[in-house]
């Protein structure tokens, strides 16, 4: 136990030296909240083969528990270290986020004593505990969609001495029972900011969330809610969080060959498709031009890798094929996906390749408007269309 306390203090010192703490009380929270309690029943660490090795909580090294890194606690929406004894393959679906990132977000959200806060995505409960330490448990409500994750977070919070309201439910709906809130902070990524969050935030209040469906092209957005129910703000930096469960796109790789079988056009593209894979601003802006799309990197029958952009909702695709020093792009479906993205990328480059901190956002009940500085070309309006007869919202329109 003394080793855990020593490592906890050392982590706080490293975070202080890195300038992470927006207020001294966040340092006191890090020094007080036992992260190891929130890493039960254990964590998964990657090995050299791409598998995940289970490390039960009773064998957790203090240096690992207080390392400034994300620690995976669940795979494939179900598997914990209680379920396996050897390394396994899987996709991380819950984790304890990098502590310095958590604290940095709490500072950027402007959370202060006296605020009522709604957290979307309880995860392990560690970030919830940090807020409880500063604000008091009665001021914090946290929502988690996964019942097992919510239960473990609740138990860990109780064990650590905190008793906030832990709600099992869809965080995209917020929690109207505790509204209005001074701050809403999301620890998962969303394709667009749910209007329910605006309704549940006091005028002048802040919403902080990651926006984007591509892991390498998302950004941290801070919004201020206006008196009329709209909200406006800007992106602060690039960041990456797991997607909200309800917005995880369905896998398309298995039927990829059928999806790209018929092309309506083929041409040379002078914009290298690696921009989509490299992340950063190009990947972020590509999502604004083609919301709902996915980038797939896969090998063909000859073992050669190919890059394909797929929009399953609009039944459209763009496939990139190397052709000497150039690339051919095959496009099919109602929407020429790459035409719109390539036009936008060229406009962005002509504007001097501005960063994500230049992107401002205006949100209303029926639309999201994005703009880069005051550029007339680098502007997107995503309109939320009425529900279809099946009861599902269709894709957003861009203009």
Please write the CATH class name of the largest domain: Alpha Beta
- Largest sheet, spatial ordering of strands: 7-6-5-8-9-10-11-17-18-19
Task: Give unreliable regions as ranges.
Answer: 387-396
Number of helices: 11
Oligomerization: single chain
CATH fold description of the largest domain:
Rossmann fold
| Cα distance spanning the termini | 58 Å
Determine the structural class based on helices, strands and strand pairing: alpha+beta
Helix percentage: 25-40%
The number of domains: 2
CATH superfamily of the largest domain: Vaccinia Virus protein VP39
Average of pLDDT: 91
Number of strands: 19
Strand content: 25-35%
Shape: globular
- Helix and strand element order: HHEEHEEHEHEHEEHEEEHEHHEEEEHEEE
Mind telling me the C-alpha Rg?
Answer: 22 Å
Protein model, in words:
This protein is α+β, with helices and mostly antiparallel strands and 399 residues long. It folds into 2 domains: 227 residues, Vaccinia Virus protein VP39 (Rossmann fold, 3-Layer(aba) Sandwich), CATH 3.40.50; 99 residues, 2-Layer Sandwich (Double Stranded RNA Binding Domain), CATH 3.30.160. 25% of the residues lie in helices and 30% in strands. It has 11 helices and 19 strands. The strands form 4 sheets. A 10-stranded mixed β-sheet has the order 7-6-5-8-9-10-11-17-18-19, sandwiched between helices. It has a 5-stranded antiparallel β-sheet with strand order 12-16-15-14-13. Helix 1 runs antiparallel to helix 2 and helix 2 crosses helix 5. About 3% of the residues have low confidence.
């Amino acid at each position: 136990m003394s080793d855990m306390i020593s490592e906890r203090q050392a982590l706080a010192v490293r975070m202080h030296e890195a300038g992470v703490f927006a207020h001294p009380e966040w340092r006191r929270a890090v020094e007080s909240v036992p992260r190891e309690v929130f890493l039960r029943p254990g964590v998964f660490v990657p090995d050299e083969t791409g598998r995940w090795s289970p490390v039960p909580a009773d064998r957790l090294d203090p240096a690992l528990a207080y390392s400034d890194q994300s620690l995976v606690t669940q795979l494939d929406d179900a598997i914990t270290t209680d379920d396996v004894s050897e390394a396994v393959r899987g996709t991380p679906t819950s984790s304890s986020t990098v502590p310095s990132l958590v604290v940095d977000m709490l500072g950027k959200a402007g959370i202060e004593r006296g605020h009522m806060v709604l957290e979307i995505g309880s995860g392990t409960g560690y970030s919830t505990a940090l807020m409880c330490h500063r604000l008091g448990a009665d001021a914090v409500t946290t929502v988690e969609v996964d019942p097992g994750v919510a239960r473990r977070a609740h138990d860990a919070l109780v064990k650590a001495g905190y008793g906030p309201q832990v709600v099992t439910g869809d965080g995209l709906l917020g929690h109207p029972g505790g509204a209005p809130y001074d701050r809403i902070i999301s620890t998962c990524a969303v394709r667009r900011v749910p209007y329910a969050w605006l309704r549940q935030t006091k005028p002048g209040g802040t919403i902080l969330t990651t926006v984007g469906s591509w892991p390498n092209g998302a950004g941290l957005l801070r919004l201020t809610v206006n008196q009329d129910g709209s909200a406006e703000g800007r992106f602060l930096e690039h960041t990456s969080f797991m997607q909200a469960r309800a917005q995880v796109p369905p896998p398309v790789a298995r039927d990829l060959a059928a999806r790209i079988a018929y092309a309506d056009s083929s041409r040379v593209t002078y914009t290298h498709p690696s921009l989509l894979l490299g992340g950063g601003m190009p990947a972020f802006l590509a999502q604004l031009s083609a919301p709902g799309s996915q980038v797939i990197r896969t090998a063909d029958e000859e073992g050669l890798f190919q890059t394909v952009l797929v929009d399953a909702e609009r039944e459209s695709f763009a496939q990139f094929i190397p052709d000497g020093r150039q690339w051919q792009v095959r496009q099919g479906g109602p929407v020429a996906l790459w035409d719109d993205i390539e036009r936008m990328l060229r406009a962005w480059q002509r504007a001097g390749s501005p960063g994500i901190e230049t992107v401002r956002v205006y949100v209303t009940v029926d639309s999201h408007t994005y703009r880069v500085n005051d550029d007339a070309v680098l502007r997107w309006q995503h309109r939320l269309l009425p529900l279809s007869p099946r009861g599902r919202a269709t894709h957003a329109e861009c203009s």
